[in-house]
Records
---
Amino acid sequence: MISGAYIDLANQEIDLAKNKIGQEITVGSIFFGGGTPSLMQPLDIGKVINKIKSDFHLADSAEITLEANPDSVDKDKLSQFLDVGINRLSFGMQSAVPHVLKTLDRTHNPENLPKVTGWAKELGFNEISVDLIYGTPGESMQDWQQSINSALSLPISHISAYALIVEPGTKLAAQIKRGEIEQIDDDLTAEKYLVADKSFSTAGFHWYELSNWAKNDSKSQHNLSYWNGENWWGIGPGAHSHINGERFWNVKHPNSYKEKIQKNELPIQDSEILQASQIESERLMLSIRLTSGIETKSLNNQQIQDLSTYVKTGHLNQSDWQNGRATLTLNGRLIADRIVREILL
């Protein structure tokens, strides 16, 4: 599907979405992600933004983010993205070390990051984010520190750092299974998180979600909407949506997507109505990741009893606990999944 044709289909899906949820909707954020949307023409991106503006109420303060591969943009293209309404850029950096990028099967040149972020800042982008991945097999602590230092040398306002998860069936999983690449060292991965948090904090970035740090007023509003369980509509093949307790997802194959849109049908493959227990479980799993944590008055007696153990061990903040909130300490962030599993049982 060529870019222009795809954009026409995406805008038709926006029409169908409008018919389902109505026009009296205020859109607080738009996020162009998945694949490499920065390969698209800025005018096509602008068509989608203008369509949303015309069909809904786009908030004056709306955050409009574009994910970008640093190899896929130049200064002129960034300028055009700014002109059509993009006001936040998220660059997939992953690492500044070539051999780590090779293991991750990422092809971009790390030397391009200073250039593209510098251009973006010069053009007037005030919100620039980079994503890092840590825990890659073969990545030493020195490699990780090099990536941290490289990221912090850029004119950014936000940084994400995610521990590598090796998904079954991937090339990397097969390489590890065959012994071609070493296993992930969980203890070293945890140590890398601590090193990252210290470096980011020293540089003026404040953690607000388990894997995200931002300078003042630069949190990702789009991601916060996910973590807070708000509504969103995903446009395009394979996109997921959540509207008022209903979760649904589009067909993945571009041809199937095209066929449904051309029949004036929502391209939904399947959906589910979330049960109250699911909604509550997701609230707990996501809330514990945020600095605001979980209000203890929203928990039952057994959950409070279970969590109080982690207050004693220093994994939950004692002062916040006394003020009615369960919030993670730095050490608590290292075992966040274990803590939340305990209160979901």
---
Amino acid sequence: MKKITSILLSVALVLSLAACGGDSKDSSGDAASSGAEAETSGEINVYVGVEEPLTGANASLGTAEYNAIELCVEMLNEKGGVLGQYPITYETVDTQSDAATGASEVERLITTKGVPVVIGSYGSGIAAAVSEVCERYDTLLWEQSGAADTLLQNGYEWTFRTESMASLWGATSVDYIVDQADYVKEVLGKDIPELKVAIIHEDGSYGTAVGQGNHAAAEKIGMDIVAYEAYSSSTLDLSSVIMKLIAAEPDILLLTGYVNDGSLFLKQSQELGFKVPILITHSGGHSVQAFVDAIGDQVNYLLTVDPVACNPKLDSFDPELQETFKEFEKRWTEKYGVKPAHHVEMRAFAQSYLFFTEVAPKAIEEGGAFTAETCRDAILSLELDASKNLMGSDVKYSTPDEPFIDPTLGGTHVGQNIYAGAFINQYFDGELYCVWPEKYGQKEGVLFLPSSSTLSAGVVD
């Protein structure tokens, strides 16, 4: 039965891809031909490539991100497309959760399909490989989820990221604790520099960047860093790491991982008796439905840092975006039978919507065409208030002449939204809600693990 279900799901995905402009194996090339003809004739054709991991280790998340992009395009095309008169078409490829495959597939999109803009990539490793290809062919990469700091440190001119870099996620968890200093003092009887903090992260580019952000921010304010450990996300045993934590007795654990290792950590911590007053995770595998399914009710009150505010106060956005937010949630729920997970689906939708409603119109109106160059010029001149960006931050991108120097690690970044922020979200009844900063917080945060948590140190009821 499982095998039949898998085959049916695969057939459904292929049909979906074919319906929206092509796939990585059976594309007819008609869209690419029309794109080339449009460029020659001067006709404006909003035509992009979408690359996501639709199979392989990241398939569930890549497919969710792809579905969000697809729904964004559907909603806009129902209103005529960009500026209400230029329908959006796109060609899709499956990166198969592999950087080398992603690079070759995107190269094929560029050289045989003529796409001027590529949207993706879900993973940081794939994003890095695709970025190099786009740079080589002067093709714009609108990166939606590759958060590793290293992505934008090559000085490339064609890659842009709207969300915050991973090290900022790490710094944000520390900032949140500092913001709660009076409450921490009341409960633990310690000032911030007296707190013992443990930093544990998976050893990939993403986890390493978050851990470095944790460490730099904690060290800057004088916290006592009692553990700083990396591990492989493919590990089947975290007991040695947990035993070190038990010996260190931290007041705070800052944890970064993915679904399997994240759920393994909680399971083995319970078995070994590890307790901690404050636990903050950092997006990745801790902010997705698969993690909730893996650990059940233990997810409640878990804090996590994300580059988007989950279930935020809607009045933070202008009225038009509030209605767009509601429409996306309604249509997603009707189409898939569940609410969209904000860390993946809303995050991808928000950035696609930003591109097609702000960048593409600016490229056409000011550049007279939809090309990689006019889109890049539009991005570099774009300045938006946070109320016009569903990601919840002001928008302005760094350039080769004026790179962004991040305040946490001091890295130099080209193509980064310099105002991108990170948000503290928390699980209530299995769903993430923003709790900080207050402007976007829909619920009041619970800083200390309550007694209902198996990891609770019991400092509060």
